[in-house]
Structure to design on (1185 residues):
C-alpha cells in the first residue's frame, strides 16, 4: 500500500512541476473586477444574532503575571451540526462560557443556550468539530488551559446527540487531557482507517520563556505536544491512547499553531507546529511506521520568532504545500520602534549554538520548492517580497480563495488587549525590581498592565497577485474596523458560492463578514463535499487536485487551521473566468486515487469513493538539468572563516563586512592540459590550489606555507600571465574590515608561477596598497602587449560607508604602476566596489570598464586611447545606485552587442527603495569620539526615519540618549528630529534607489534598457552568475546563486535561494525553471561561482562562506564541444546556421571575486566563428561548409 501510494503521489507531483515549468501562466481576469470592489460586508450582530463576546477582565487569578497567556483570546469552529446543509458556529470563551449558534439561513443565527451547559466552567482555547464516533453528526472537541488546577483544565468532548444537545465524554474516549492545551487536529496518521488526534500544548509553569537554555528534546518538556492514537480498529471501541513518546513527538515548545498536510508528498500526513518564544517551529514528518521525524532544521532556513498561528496551503498553484506563520511585527514605524530593543548578535549566536533555528520577529511565508536530488524538501522564505511580513500582533492566518480567481488569498487576525511590549513600560517596571519585593513588583505589574492601552487594529486581508506577491486589500475589502481578534474560520455561511469569515474578538461581539464575490461576473467556483469511509466519514486527510486550462489547484480536507479554530468541511475552489474544469483527482486517506472529468462549475458536488475512474500509474523519472558531482570528483573542500564580530565594532552596520569571500580562480597553471582552480580563505586560514587530472579528480595543496600569510583575508582571486612567460601567475586581493586603516594585512599579494604550478610570492611588483580591496580584473587596456589590472576598493576600514580605494594598475615590464589619477579620473573613490568588468560596451574595439558596488550607481568608464572617462550619464540610465554584488555579461538578445546581468540585494528584504524613497546613509563622527557613525534611513508612511532601534543608536552615539530619553520620543523621530540640517550637510551621504537584480539590454547606441529579473531571481542577493547556453537552443541562459548570512539580527539572514536556472529566449527575457527540475541545491552562504572544464565538459563550482564547495555538471542530453580560444582574443562573433548571430567576450576575471574558463561552448549549430584581438583583427577559428 505504501509503495503504491508513493508512486501515485510521485507521478502527480512530477506532472505538477512540468505544468508549472512548461505552461503559460493562466490569466486571472477576475482580479480586475475585484480591484475596487468592496468584497466583504460586516454583518451587525443585531442582524446576524451572533452577539458572542469573549470578555476578558484581569483579576487576581487571571493577569499577565500569574497567567502570561491571559490575552491570547479564543477560537471558533464552523460545521454543520444538525445536517441541514448550513454551517453552524461554536465559539470558545476564556472567562465566559462557550456558545453554540445554529445557522438559520440568510446569515441569521440562533444561540442554543443549554447545548453544552453540563461542562464545568474553565478557560477554553481551541475548538474543532469532528465526527469522532462516525454516527453522521459532528461532535465538538474543546481545549482547555488557564491558571487553574489540572482537574479544571480537562479538555472536553461534546458528543452530538442528533437533536442539538451534546453529552460530554472526553474521559470515556480517553481525551480528557489535563495539560495546557491550545488546539487539536484529527487525522489518520497511521492509515488504519480511524481518526487519531494531535494535541498542541503550551504551559503556564515556565516563568522565563525567552531565556536561552538547551532545547528539551526527549519528551519531558513542560509543554510537550501529545499524539493520541485511536484504538478502534483493534476492537477496543473508540478509545484513544497516548503514544507521544513512542511516535517521536518529543520536542518541547509553546505551541500556538498546528496544521496537517502531506508536506513531502509521500502519501503520509505530516504535522507542522509553530511555537511561541524560543522553541523552534517543527515539521514532524510521518515515516509511515507509526513514528515521526522532526525535520525543521533541514527543511527551513529560518522561522518566525514569536510564532503564533499557521496555515498550510498551495499559494502558487504548483502542487506543493507552502507554510504560512504569523508573528507580531508592526507595519508602521511608531509601533515597531516602541517595541524594538537592542540587537544582540552574540546572544543570537548563542541561541544557534543551542540548536535553535535562526528566528526573526516577522511573519514568514515558506514556499515549498520541492525535493532536492538529496531527497530533502527545500523551503524558500519569501514573506518580505510577498509583502505580508508585518501585520501587527497577529494570530490566525487563513489561506483561501476569497475572490474566486483561482488563487489563495490571505486573511490575518490581530490585536492584543494590553500593549505590554511597550519598552517604556518594560523599562519602568524593570527599574523597580531592585527597589521592591517580588510580591510588590508582581502587584505593581498587574496594576500597570491594566493601565496600558490596547493594541486595537484592523485585521488584514491580502489578495494573491499570482506568483510571489500579495496586495493589501484591507481597506478596499471592508476590514478597516479596529478590533482585537484571535481565532477565525471561513465557510460559505449563506451557500452562495463564496467564502464568508467568522472572527472571535476580545471584549466586543464576534464578527461575521459576508463575502459578496457571488455578485460579480467572471468569478466562478466549485464546491466539493467528500464522503469517506465508515470510520472517517468526512474524509479528513484527503487531497483534491483541480486541473483547469493548464493550471493546478490543490486542497487538503483538513479543518484545523489558523489559530485555535477549525474551518468548514466543504472544499472550495475559485475558478476565475473559466467554467470548464478539465478534471479532478481525488486521493483518499487510504491512498486510493480516482479521476473525475464530468464536473460542472458553480455547483456543490458530492464525491464518494465509488465515483469517477480508478487509475494505476507507473512513475516516470526525468533527469534534472544539473547533477551534483562533488563526490564523483572527490572534492571535499570547506572554505574556512574565523568568526569576527563586526557589530561589536560598529553597532549600526546593516551587514557584516568580514565574510565577503571566497572567490574561485580557474586556469591551467601547470600547462598539462587540465584546468585547475584556486579558492581563497578567510583570516587565520590559507587558500588552496587544486590541480586537475585526466581522471577529473583534483589534488589539493597550499601555495604558501608561511604562517604570516594566514593573517590576510582573501577576497578577489585571478590567474593571469603578468610577466608574459606563458604561464599563469596568481593575484590575491586582501580585504575585509577586521584591521585598522593602513594595516599591512590589506596589501594585495602576487604569486609568480614557475611553469609547473608552483608559486612564490613576489615583492616589489605591486605598489603599496594598504586598503581593503575586492575584485581584481585583468586586461591590456593600453594595448601595449601585457595585462594591466583594475583592483576594486571595497571599503574604508572601520569607516563604513566611506568609499574604498580603487586602483588602475599599468603593467610596465612586469611591474605595476598606479596610474589611477592620470588615466581614470573619478575611479579612485568610485565607491564601495564589489565587482567590475572589462567589456566593450559601445563596441568600438576598446575595452571599457563597468564598476558596481554597495551604495553605488552602475558606473560606466569609457576607454578612449587608454584613458577612462565616466560616461554613466550618457547611458540613458538614472537612479541606478543600489547594493550591487556582481556583474556578468552576454549577448542575451542575439543582436551583436553585449548585454549585462547585475546581481543586487533583491526584493525579499526588509529594506525597500525607489527613486522617490531611497535608502540613505548619513555618516559622520557625531559625538566627536574618533569613530564614524553610520545612520541608515528608509521611508515609511511617506517620512524618512532611522532604521535602527533607539538602543542601537545610543550604543553607537551615546549623546542621543539625552535627546531621546524614552522610546516614545524616538519612535516619533524623523531624520530631521535626529540630525540637524548642519549635521546632515556635513555628513557623508550615500543613497540606494534600486535593490532589484536586473538585466541591462544594450541598444547599440551607448544606451541601455533596464529589465527587472523574474521574482524568483529576487528572493535573495545574487553573488554567483554563470552565463551559458544550457539547453543548446542558441540562446544564452543564466544560472544564479546567492544568499547572505552576515546580516544584523533585526533584519535577518538572506537565505531563500538554492540556486536558480533562468532559461533565455533570445530576446533578453528569462523564465525560471521549477527548482526541483533543475537539480541545484546550493542553499548556503553562497559567494563566488566559476566555470571549469573537466573531461571536456563545463562544470560549475559553487563556493560558500564557511561551507563546503559544490560541483555541478549539466546532466541533460547534449552534443556540446569546447573550443580553445587564443589567449589574445577579446571577443568572438558566432554565426549560426539559422542566420542568427551572437557576440561573446572573453574575460580575465568575471563574476563575484572569481574567474571562469575562457573556452567557448559549441552546440553543433554554429556556421562560423570569428575571434578578434584587442586591435579588432579577426581570425576564423571555426568554419562549417
Amino acid at each position: 500500500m505504501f509503495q503504491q501510494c508513493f508512486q501515485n503521489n510521485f507521478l502527480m507531483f512530477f506532472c505538477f512541476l512540468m505544468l508549472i515549468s512548461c505552461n503559460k501562466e493562466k490569466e486571472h481576469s477576475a482580479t480586475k473586477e475585484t480591484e475596487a470592489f468592496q468584497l466583504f460586508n460586516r454583518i451587525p450582530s443585531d442582524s446576524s444574532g451572533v452577539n458572542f463576546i469573549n470578555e476578558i477582565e484581569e483579576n487576581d487569578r487571571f493577569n499577565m503575571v500569574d497567567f502570561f497567556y491571559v490575552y491570547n483570546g479564543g477560537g471558533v469552529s464552523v460545521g454543520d451540526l444538525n445536517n441541514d446543509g448550513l454551517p453552524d458556529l461554536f465559539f470558545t470563551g476564556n472567562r465566559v462560557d462557550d456558545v453554540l449558534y445554529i445557522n438559520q439561513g440568510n446569515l441569521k443565527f440562533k444561540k442554543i443556550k443549554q447545548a453544552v451547559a453540563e461542562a464545568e466552567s474553565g478557560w477554553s482555547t481551541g475548538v474543532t468539530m469532528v465526527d469522532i464516533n462516525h454516527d453522521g453528526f459532528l461532535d465538538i472537541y474543546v481545549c482547555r488551559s488557564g491558571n487553574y488546577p489540572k482537574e479544571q483544565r480537562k479538555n472536553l468532548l461534546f458528543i452530538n446527540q442528533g437533536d442539538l444537545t451534546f453529552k460530554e465524554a472526553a474521559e470515556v474516549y480517553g481525551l480528557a487531557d489535563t495539560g495546557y492545551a491550545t488546539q487539536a487536529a484529527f487525522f489518520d496518521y497511521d492509515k488504519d482507517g480511524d481518526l487519531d488526534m494531535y494535541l498542541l500544548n503550551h504551559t503556564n509553569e515556565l516563568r522565563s520563556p525567552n531565556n536561552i537554555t538547551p532545547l528539551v528534546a526527549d519528551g519531558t518538556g513542560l509543554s510537550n505536544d501529545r499524539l493520541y492514537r485511536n484504538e478502534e480498529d483493534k476492537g477496543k471501541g473508540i478509545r484513544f491512547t497516548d503514544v507521544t513518546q513512542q511516535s517521536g513527538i518529543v520536542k518541547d515548545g509553546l505551541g500556538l499553531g498546528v496544521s496537517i498536510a502531506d508536506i513531502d508528498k509521500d502519501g503520509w500526513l505530516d504535522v507542522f507546529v509553530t511555537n511561541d518564544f524560543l522553541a523552534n517551529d517543527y515539521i514532524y514528518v510521518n515515516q509511515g511506521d507509526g513514528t515521526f521525524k522532526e525535520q525543521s532544521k533541514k527543511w527551513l532556513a529560518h522561522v518566525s520568532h514569536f510564532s503564533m498561528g499557521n496555515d498550510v496551503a498551495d499559494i502558487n498553484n504548483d502542487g506543493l504545500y507552502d507554510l504560512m506563520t504569523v508573528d507580531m511585527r508592526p507595519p508602521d514605524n511608531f509601533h515597531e520602534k516602541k517595541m524594538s530593543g537592542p540587537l544582540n548578535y552574540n546572544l543570537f549566536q548563542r541561541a544557534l549554538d543551542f540548536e535553535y533555528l535562526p528566528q526573526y520577529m516577522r511573519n514568514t511565508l515558506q514556499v515549498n520548492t520541492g525535493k532536492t536530488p538529496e531527497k530533502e524538501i527545500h523551503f524558500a522564505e519569501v514573506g518580505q517580497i510577498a509583502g505580508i511580513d508585518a501585520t501587527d500582533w497577529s494570530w490566525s492566518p487563513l489561506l483561501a480563495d476569497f475572490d474566486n480567481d483561482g488563487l489563495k488569498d490571505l486573511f490575518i487576525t490581530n490585536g492584543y488587549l494590553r500593549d505590554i511590549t511597550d519598552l517604556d513600560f518594560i523599562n519602568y517596571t524593570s527599574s523597580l525590581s531592585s527597589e521592591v519585593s517580588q510580591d510588590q513588583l508582581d502587584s505593581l505589574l498587574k496594576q500597570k498592565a491594566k493601565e496600558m492601552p490596547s493594541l486595537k487594529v484592523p485585521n488584514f486581508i491580502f489578495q494573491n497577485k499570482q506568483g510571489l506577491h500579495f496586495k493589501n486589500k484591507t481597506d478596499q475589502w471592508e476590514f478597516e474596523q479596529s478590533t482585537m481578534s484571535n481565532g477565525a474560520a471561513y465557510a460559505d455561511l449563506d451557500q452562495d458560492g463564496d467564502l464568508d469569515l467568522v472572527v472571535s474578538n476580545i471584549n466586543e461581539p464576534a464578527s461575521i463578514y459576508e463575502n459578496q464575490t457571488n455578485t460579480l461576473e467572471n468569478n466562478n467556483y466549485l464546491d466539493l463535499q467528500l464522503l469517506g469511509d465508515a470510520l472517517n466519514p468526512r474524509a479528513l486527510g484527503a487531497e483534491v487536485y483541480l486541473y483547469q486550462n493548464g493550471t493546478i489547484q490543490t486542497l487538503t480536507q483538513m479543518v484545523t487551521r489558523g489559530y485555535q479554530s477549525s474551518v468548514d468541511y466543504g472544499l472550495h475552489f475559485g475558478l476565475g473566468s473559466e467554467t470548464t474544469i478539465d478534471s479532478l483527482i481525488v486521493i483518499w486517506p487510504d491512498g486510493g486515487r480516482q479521476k473525475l472529468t464530468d464536473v460542472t462549475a458553480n455547483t456543490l458536488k458530492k464525491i464518494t469513493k465509488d465515483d469517477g475512474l480508478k487509475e494505476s500509474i507507473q512513475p516516470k523519472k526525468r533527469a534534472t538539468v544539473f547533477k551534483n558531482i562533488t563526490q564523483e570528483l572527490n572534492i571535499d573542500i570547506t572554505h574556512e572563516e574565523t568568526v569576527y564580530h563586526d557589530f561589536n565594532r560598529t553597532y549600526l552596520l546593516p551587514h557584516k563586512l568580514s565574510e565577503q569571500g571566497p572567490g574561485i580562480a580557474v586556469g591551467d597553471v601547470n600547462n598539462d592540459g587540465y584546468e585547475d582552480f584556486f579558492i581563497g580563505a578567510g583570516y587565520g586560514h590559507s587558500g588552496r590550489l587544486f590541480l586537475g587530472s585526466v581522471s577529473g579528480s583534483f589534488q589539493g595543496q597550499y601555495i604558501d606555507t608561511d604562517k604570516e600569510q594566514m593573517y590576510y583575508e582573501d577576497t578577489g582571486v585571478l590567474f593571469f600571465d603578468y610577466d608574459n612567460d606563458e604561464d599563469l601567475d596568481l593575484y590575491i586581493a586582501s580585504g575585509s574590515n577586521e584591521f585598522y586603516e593602513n594595516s599591512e594585512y590589506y596589501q594585495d599579494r602576487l604569486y609568480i608561477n614557475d611553469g609547473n604550478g608552483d608559486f612564490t610570492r613576489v615583492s616589489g611588483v605591486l605598489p603599496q596598497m594598504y586598503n581593503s580591496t575586492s575584485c581584481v580584473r585583468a586586461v591590456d587596456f593600453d594595448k601595449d602587449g601585457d595585462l594591466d589590472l583594475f583592483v576594486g576598493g571595497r571599503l574604508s576600514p572601520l569607516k563604513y560607508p566611506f568609499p574604498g580605494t580603487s586602483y588602475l594598475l599599468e603593467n610596465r615590464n612586469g611591474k605595476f604602476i598606479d596610474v589611477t589619477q592620470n588615466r581614470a579620473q573619478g575611479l579612485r573613490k568610485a565607491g564601495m566596489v564589489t565587482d567590475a568588468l572589462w567589456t566593450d560596451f559601445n563596441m568600438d574595439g576598446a575595452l571599457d570598464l563597468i564598476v558596481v558596488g554597495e551604495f553605488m550607481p552602475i558606473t560606466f568608464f569609457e576607454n578612449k586611447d587608454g584613458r577612462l572617462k565616466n560616461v554613466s550619464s550618457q547611458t540613458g540610465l538614472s537612479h541606478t545606485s543600489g547594493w550591487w554584488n556582481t556583474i556578468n555579461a552576454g549577448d542575451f538578445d542575439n543582436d551583436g552587442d553585449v548585454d549585462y546581468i547585475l546581481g543586487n540585494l533583491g526584493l525579499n528584504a526588509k529594506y525597500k527603495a525607489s527613486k522617490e524613497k531611497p535608502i540613505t546613509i548619513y555618516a559622520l563622527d557625531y559625538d566627536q569620539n574618533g569613530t564614524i557613525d553610520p545612520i541608515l534611513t528608509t521611508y515609511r508612511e511617506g517620512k524618512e526615519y532611522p532604521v535602527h532601534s533607539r538602543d542601537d543608536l545610543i550604543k553607537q552615539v551615546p549623546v542621543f540618549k539625552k535627546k531621546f530619553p524614552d522610546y516614545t520620543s524616538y519612535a516619533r523621530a524623523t531624520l530631521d528630529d535626529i540630525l540637524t540640517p548642519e549635521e546632515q550637510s556635513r555628513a557623508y551621504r550615500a543613497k540606494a534607489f534600486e535593490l532589484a537584480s536586473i538585466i541591462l539590454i544594450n541598444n547599440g547606441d551607448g544606451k541601455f534598457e533596464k529589465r527587472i529579473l523574474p521574482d524568483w531571481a529576487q528572493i535573495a542577493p545574487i553573488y554567483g552568475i554563470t552565463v551559458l547556453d544550457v539547453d543548446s537552443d542558441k540562446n544564452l541562459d543564466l544560472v544564479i546563486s546567492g544568499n547572505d548570512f552576515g546580516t544584523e539580527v533585526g533584519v535577518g539572514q538572506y537565505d531563500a535561494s538554492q540556486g536558480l536556472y533562468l532559461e533565455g529566449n533570445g530576446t533578453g527575457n528569462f523564465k525560471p525553471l521549477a527548482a526541483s527540475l533543475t537539480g541545484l541545491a546550493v542553499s548556503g552562504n553562497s559567494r563566488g561561482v566559476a566555470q571549469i572544464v573537466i573531461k571536456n565538459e563545463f562544470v560549475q563550482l559553487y563556493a560558500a562562506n564557511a561551507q563546503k564547495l559544490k560541483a555541478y555538471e549539466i546532466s541533460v542530453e547534449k552534443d556540446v564541444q569546447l573550443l580553445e580560444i587564443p589567449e589574445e582574443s577579446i571577443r568572438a562573433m558566432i554565426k549560426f546556421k539559422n542566420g542568427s548571430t551572437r557576440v561573446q567576450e572573453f574575460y580575465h576575471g568575471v563574476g563575484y571575486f572569481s574567474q571562469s574558463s575562457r573556452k567557448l561552448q559549441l552546440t553543433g549549430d554554429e556556421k562560423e566563428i570569428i575571434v578578434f584581438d584587442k586591435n579588432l583583427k579577426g581570425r576564423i577559428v571555426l568554419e562549417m561548409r
